[in-house]
Specification:
The protein is of the alpha/beta class and about 375 residues long. The protein has 12 helices and 12 strands. The model has no long low-confidence stretch (mean pLDDT about 95).
Length: about 375
Amino acid sequence: MKNIIYLDNAAAAKVYPEVAEEMKKYLTDEYGNPSSIHQLGDRAAEAIKMAREKIAKEIGAKPWEIIFTSGGTEANNLAINGLSIANNKKKKIIISSIEHPSVSELCKFLQNWGYKIVEIPVDKEGIIDISKLEKEIDAETLLVSIMHVNNEIGTMQDIKKIGEICKQKRVYFHTDAVQSFGKLNIDVKNMNIDMLSASGHKIGGPKGIGFLYVREGIKISPIMIGGGQERGFRSGTENVPGIAGFAKALEIAKKVNKDKIIKLRYTLIFELEKIGGKINGSKTKRIYNNVNVSFPGIEGDTAVVFLSQKGIMCSTGSACKSKNLKESHVLSALGLTKKEIAGSLRFTLNEDISEKDINYIVSEVDKIVKKLRIN
């Protein structure tokens, strides 16, 4: 088996060993149902309480403002659908043209219920037009939902500025922070964020766990009905191992050497450009571990398979889209040509990557690009 160079951390990061150990405790020893009133149940409930407090503290929230979900997709659905059900007098929702499908597809669905969905365009670097956003907010607007960091191109939006505008205009502001939580500094009060979604498996935690922050006082309706867990907002027995693992992953993620990753990310960008790659998205307003590059004239999916055979694991963009062969709406929104979109690759780095790895990656990408262009 070849040594694996893993560059698909925006899809799912490797679970930290410490996280797996923390989860094991709640799978084999402390396995009680947190709704049970016996000692094992009490200890499971206490584990959730502690995790909720750690996660809330990370974003400057109150513990009871955190609702645990099965991940970012459910959190986004609970935020938007839950808010629209509970506040159905206003029928306009504003999003960006590069939102994750769990936001954009849900908003398309809401059009069937009479909602007007407005997509704010982005420039060639993937940054939204804030002046157009401000102009679009009117008396009929219920919600603005703009993601913090894009999952494909890694560009970062000025959510503090967006939050200020929404507060002035008295509309709710939700941000999908799945790619930024645990990596960038977030303060929901200072940034005027009303709702925020995050997920565990992007920061070395387990899959199947996430949360939605909902500012105290905001009315949302549950989208899952049952036993009334999570203060009635998300019924279903809580995923105690997942919740404990998520909190442990956050603890470790905060210690990641970002400077090392940034340096290697810039090296990778420089070397990919030298062999003819075109970087997609902003080079400056970009999360520290993302590189999205196009090689027109190749098929990105084919390149991913070839690179995988060389031990290099990357992707063509969103993990949610990588197997259904749809054209990237994100790259299309940036104005890329069909050839540039088809020839795109996404590399998302972690601390395990070395300079030697970067040299090997670039060498293999160069070989594969030349081979695919010849064929």
